[in-house]
Each structure stands twice: as structure tokens, then as C-alpha cells.
Amino acid sequence: MRPSKRAPDELRPVSLERGFSKHAEGSCLVRFGDTHVLCTASVGEQTPGWLRGTGKGWVTAEYGMLPRSTNERMRRESAQGRQGGRTLEIQRLIGRSLRAVVDLKAIGERQITVDCDVIQADGGTRTASITGGWVALHDALAWMRKRGMVGDGALVDHVAAISCGIHGGQAVLDLDYSEDSEAGTDANFVMTGKGGLVEVQATAEGAPFSDDDLQALMALARRGIRRLVDLQAMAVG
């Protein structure tokens, strides 16, 4: 039995609260159980310098955890003068995931920045950020479309992410912190609405995992991401 009493293929309660911030062009407060992340999408008129003159835009992301998002207060990274390696890795993952479903030529020479701020952490902050970030990005593009800045085809698909792991010898979906901290294998999957793989991160914490284990985790992830895509569609519908 999982610590949360969930079935192996059961997600935590997931909610996507669209339009949470009145100032951002797009926003979403995403909850995966006790993991809560505020995602905001901001439209800028300047693209990165290396893209100027190409006619292409850019989608990027920034990620951070608030000081009391965890059991003990952590120092703000800005107070330390630099971002940690984990932060950089996660925000690059979020940016890659969102760019996978955007026609960058369609948005012109503009940049959309998706900020993901973790209010409360209980495992799966990167997967929640990608899933909620898509909703914020969707609404930012809708804001642009209303102003004639983009056409209808800028957003080409959904993208969502979920964690899986081997816990107690069993493949399980959507790990909370108590499971993640004890899992023999943990993995994160990013997939599009059409089922394409954007990224797979899988790590054995002890004994190596087998091909069969990886396939079991991927099958769970596909089912979980289909549910998340349905929730995204309901949120923006």
C-alpha cells in the first residue's frame, strides 16, 4: 500500500486555476496534491539577441521555490547571489517542454517568459510547473491573438509532465515527497497531447532498473498525462 493510500495508477488531486494573476497575460495556479505552483506567462517585445532578424520568437522559463515552500525556511537564491544547479536544470526543462509545442515563427520576434514559483512543495514541482505552465502559455497566446499579434496556429499541442517511480517494488504514478524520498527508481516524463515524448529523466537510487521496469513506468506516465491533458483542456475550454 502506498503511504497516500492511492492506487498505483492514481494521481494526486489535481487542479488548474486559470487566470489567478490579474497582471500577467496568462496565469495558472496548479495544484498536484500538496504541491502548489503559481505559473505566470509574460509577453515581451524583444527576442534574445541571437534570434534578432530571424523572424522567430522564443519561449523561456524561470523557476524558483519560496523560502517556506518546504518544512524549513530556505534562503532566497537572489540573496545568495546565484541560482543553484537544480534550479537551472528545472527551468531549462520547463522551457524546452513548452517550446516543443509552440510554432516559434508564428509568434514573431517576441519572447514569452513563463515564471514558475513554488508556493508549497511536496514532490513533483517540475512536473506541476510544466503542466500549469502550459495553461499560462495558452492564455498568453490567446491574449496575443486578440490583439492581432499571432494567428491561430501558434500553439500546436498540449504538453504535460508526471513523475513515476518504483516504490516498495511496485511501479507507481505521481510521487509525493514521502514516496520520492524512498523510491528505488524515480522518473519524470514529459509528453505532448498526441503522445510524443519530449523528455525522459529516470534514475536508479539503488539497484539498477530493468527494461521492463522502464516500460511499466512509461505506461503509467502515458495514462497519467492523458488525464492531465484532459484537465488542461477543461481548464481552457
From TrEMBL:
Record CDD domains: RNase_PH_bact (cd11362)
Top-rank EC class of the record's enzyme: transferase
GO biological process: rRNA 3'-end processing; rRNA catabolic process; tRNA processing
Organism domain of life: Bacteria
Keyword entries, A-Z: Nucleotidyltransferase, RNA-binding, rRNA processing, Transferase, tRNA processing, tRNA-binding
Domain annotation Exoribonuclease phosphorolytic: ranges: 10-140, 159-223
Listed EC numbers: 2.7.7.56
Residues annotated to bind phosphate: R86, G124, T125, R126
Catalytic activity, reaction form: tRNA(n+1) + phosphate = tRNA(n) + a ribonucleoside 5'-diphosphate
Gene Ontology MF terms: 3'-5'-RNA exonuclease activity; tRNA binding; tRNA nucleotidyltransferase activity
NCBIfam families: RNasePH
Protein role: Phosphorolytic 3'-5' exoribonuclease that plays an important role in tRNA 3'-end maturation. Removes nucleotide residues following the 3'-CCA terminus of tRNAs; can also add nucleotides to the ends of RNA molecules by using nucleoside diphosphates as substrates, but this may not be physiologically important. Probably plays a role in initiation of 16S rRNA degradation (leading to ribosome degradation) during starvation.
Assembly mode: Homohexameric ring arranged as a trimer of dimers.
Family according to the record: Belongs to the RNase PH family.
Protein name: Ribonuclease PH
